[in-house]
């Protein structure tokens, strides 16, 4: 049986933790940063946990994740 292929776009955007949660980088930290507060920018740097329903869809694209 051949290996399953990983969706490369999903591999670059998501990371699966040891407990099986799917982490992603928050959006909104690329440009127009002057009007955003320091606190807001600091919180956008952190990784966030994907909801269970969305995580199921992502895990299909990451068979070895």
Main β sheet profile: 3 strands, antiparallel
CATH fold type: Factor Xa Inhibitor
The percentage helix is 25-40%
The assigned structural class equals alpha+beta
Task: Please report the distance between the alpha carbons of the first and last residues.
Answer: 19 Å
Q: How many alpha or pi helices?
A: 3
What is the level 1 CATH name?
Few Secondary Structures
CATH architecture: Irregular
Uncertain segments: none
Number of strands: 3
H-E order: HEEHEH
- Give the overall silhouette: elongated
Whole-number tally of structural domains: 1
User: C-alpha Rg, in Å?
Assistant: 15 Å
pLDDT averaged residue by residue: 96
Oligomer: single chain
Would you kindly provide a written description of the structure presented here, covering whatever features stand out?
With 65 residues, this protein is an alpha+beta fold. The protein has a single domain (8-61), classed as Factor Xa Inhibitor, CATH 4.10.410. It contains 3 helices and 3 strands, in the order H-E-E-H-E-H. It has helices at 8-13, 38-45, 52-61; strands at residues 14-16, 22-25, 47-49. A hairpin with a 5-residue loop joins strand 1 (14-16) and strand 2 (22-25). The two termini are 19 Å apart. The mean pLDDT is 96.
